[in-house]
Design brief:
The chain has helices at about 5-10, 55-60, 85-100, 105-110, and strands at about 15-20, 25-30, 35-40, 45-50, 65, 75-80. It has about 120 residues and is of the alpha+beta class. It has a six-stranded antiparallel beta sheet with strand order 1-2-3-4-6-5, with helices on one face. Strand 3 (about 35-40) and strand 4 (about 45-50) form a beta hairpin. Helix 1 (about 5-10) packs across helix 3 (about 85-100). It comes from Lentzea indica. It holds the Pfam family YjbR.
Length: about 120
């Protein structure tokens, strides 16, 4: 099971990330773009994910992954149960969401040329 401290450690290690408490929810942003957020009860991790790939992700493990609310379907967003994630998988998802928000040069500088 992943904890809030695990998510925070990964997110805050990424360049340009800031943490904010908005309406009792912890959110991680690059500039004005939120790329990861925790539910109020800290049981669900929301994260940026390519819109065209999210149906396959949710179908791959519907216990672990879920679509956002209908009003949020317009965003590139998916939810994951914190209880079902391990630290390695959460790290991959958070970094993937972060890469959707930063310039490629920042990704290369932080993760290396091979990541792209």
């Amino acid at each position: 099971m992943v904890t809030v401290a695990d998510v925070r450690a990964v997110a805050l290690s990424l360049p340009r990330t800031t943490e904010h408490l908005i309406r009792d929810r912890v959110k991680f942003r690059v500039g004005q773009i939120v790329y990861a957020a925790l539910s109020r009860d800290e049981t669900v991790l929301g994260f940026g994910y390519p819109r065209e790939e999210r149906e396959a992700l949710v179908a791959s493990d519907p216990v672990k992954f879920a679509f956002p609310s209908q009003s949020d379907m317009r965003f590139q967003w998916v939810h994951a149960s914190m209880a079902e994630l391990d630290v390695e998988e959460m790290t991959e998802l958070v970094i993937g969401a972060w890469t959707m928000c930063v310039p490629k040069k920042v990704i290369r500088a932080h993760l290396g040329e091979d990541y792209l």
